[in-house]
């Protein structure tokens, strides 16, 4: 029945119910396993029924929270999608929204005079914003590891909104779009450099039934994000924004950051997970790389050889582990 609460780096009140606590006398810390109270509450509330077609993120989130006692806060996620739920747990539906709208879902509490006066869920866009943060393996980070994996794609087709009545129907393509390295008439785009490196026969299809504009369809097909092996890594780095004079060095989930390894390689990476150490700021662990849904990808900068060239994660988890000093 005991709770642990603190304000996170975005000044949101996070509340956790303590499941167990184990003291480590030698290290002088207490290891606490706790349940995120916001996620747990949403995981025990049921959505009666939702049937939405072509809904915005705001519409989908409002429907998922209707009658729950939770309010929708900031919404910046864009796009349209279908959403269906029947007797599903609200947290599951919110996680589905996070995937379909490429969003970060954050539930938190509002407190006044020591009492909870509000329950809020933010649905924010996974924006790859560069805020100027550089991690250096020789100074700003204690450790940096980078790995490469995955099979590249060298040619991609694009399929948009159905426009025919036959079965299967004719769909929007970007055949009439003419661009550098993409002749008019081609219903696909290809990467000549990637073909030279990896050969022919590495093809895939991008499909979005809501896209009507051929130019938008070709832009979202994003072959460049698929034409090199995937890269990922971790950096154990100082949480600089909490040091006086360095408040501008903010790092948030899905940010773009520069990474300079000890061997001198420069990478532009996406932050896909942050494990903050609120007691020892220098031991914050930042995971960089790519997501399984391809919404954020690491990119090698131009000076590196092209031959050198991440999972849907929920925005909060129910079980959490803390280390507290005595």
Briefly summarize what is shown.
With 326 residues, the protein is mainly β. The chain is built from 5 helices and 19 strands. The protein has helices at residues 37-43, 57-65, 90-100, 192-198, 214-221; strands spanning 3-7, 13-24, 29-36, 46-56, 71-75, 80-89, 103-112, 115-125, 130-136, 141-149, 155-159, 188-190, 203-207, 230-237, 256-260, 266-275, 284-289, 299-300, 319-325.
Keywords, separated by commas or semicolons:
326 residues, mainly beta, 13% helix, 7-stranded mixed beta sheet, 4-stranded antiparallel beta sheet
Helix and strand run: EEEHEHEEHEEEEEEHEHEEEEEE
Query: Tell me about the biggest sheet?
Result: 7 strands, mixed
Number of helices: 5
Global Rg? 23 Å
**Overall helicity:** 10-25%
Secondary structure class reads mainly beta
Strand content: 35-45%
Q: Mean pLDDT across all residues, rounded?
A: 79
Total beta-strand segments: 19
Distance between the termini: 20 Å
Outline type: globular
Low-confidence stretches: 291-317
Characterize the quaternary organization of these chains. Answer: single chain
Describe the protein:
By secondary structure, this protein is mainly β. The chain is built from five helices and 19 strands. The chain has helices at residues 37-43, 57-65, 90-100, 192-198, 214-221, and strands at 3-7, 13-24, 29-36, 46-56, 71-75, 80-89, 103-112, 115-125, 130-136, 141-149, 155-159, 188-190, 203-207, 230-237, 256-260, 266-275, 284-289, 299-300, 319-325. Helix 2 (57-65) packs antiparallel against helix 3 (90-100). Mean pLDDT is 79; it is low at 291-317.
């Amino acid at each position: 029945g005991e709770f642990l609460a603190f304000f996170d780096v975005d000044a949101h009140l996070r509340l956790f119910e303590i499941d167990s606590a184990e003291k480590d006398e030698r290290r002088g810390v207490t290891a606490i396993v706790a349940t995120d109270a916001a996620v747990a509450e949403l995981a025990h509330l049921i959505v009666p029924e939702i049937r939405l077609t072509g809904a915005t993120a705001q519409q989908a989130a409002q429907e998922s929270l209707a009658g729950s006692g939770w309010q929708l806060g900031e919404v910046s996620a864009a796009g349209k999608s279908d959403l269906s739920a029947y007797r599903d747990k609200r947290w599951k539906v919110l996680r589905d929204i996070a995937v379909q709208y490429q969003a970060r879902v954050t539930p938190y509490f509002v407190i006044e005079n020591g009492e909870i006066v509000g329950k809020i869920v933010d649905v924010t866009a996974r924006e790859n914003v560069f805020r100027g943060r550089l991690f250096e393996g020789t100074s700003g980070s204690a450790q940096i590891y980078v790995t490469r994996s995955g099979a590249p794609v060298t040619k991609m087709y694009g399929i948009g909104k159905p426009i025919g009545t036959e079965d299967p129907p004719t769909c929007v393509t970007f055949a009439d779009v003419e661009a550098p390295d993409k002749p008019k008439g081609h219903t696909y785009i290809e990467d000549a450099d990637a073909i030279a490196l990896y050969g022919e026969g590495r093809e895939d299809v991008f499909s979005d039934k809501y896209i009507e504009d051929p130019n938008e369809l070709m832009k979202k097909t994003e072959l460049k994000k698929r034409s090199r092996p995937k890269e990922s890594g971790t950096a154990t780095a100082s949480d600089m924004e909490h040091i006086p004079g360095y408040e501008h060095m903010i790092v948030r989930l899905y940010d773009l950051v520069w990474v300079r390894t000890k061997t001198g390689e420069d990478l532009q990476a996406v932050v896909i997970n942050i494990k903050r150490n609120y007691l020892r700021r220098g031991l914050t662990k930042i995971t960089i790389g790519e997501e399984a849904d391809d919404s954020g990808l690491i990119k090698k900068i131009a000076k590196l050889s092209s031959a050198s060239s991440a999972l849907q994660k929920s925005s909060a988890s129910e079980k959490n582990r803390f280390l507290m000093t005595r």
